[in-house]
Specification:
With about 50 residues, this protein is mainly alpha-helical. The protein contains 2 helices and no strands.
């Protein structure tokens, strides 16, 4: 079983504050992971394709 490392709480709080002030729709989950630096910590797992 893989263990996942989550971004530190302070980074998530800072991200949420920035998102609150940002205009437009929320980014994709992949973009959120990239912005928080979580993508680098995740094992190579295939994510399901986004629905249109």
């Amino acid at each position: 079983m893989s263990s996942f490392t989550h971004p530190p709480k302070h980074l998530v709080r800072e991200y949420l504050e920035r998102r609150k002030r940002a205009a437009g729709p929320p980014p994709s989950p992949e973009e959120i992971r990239r912005q928080l630096g979580w993508a680098m910590m995740m094992p190579q797992v295939k994510l399901p394709a986004a629905r249109n």
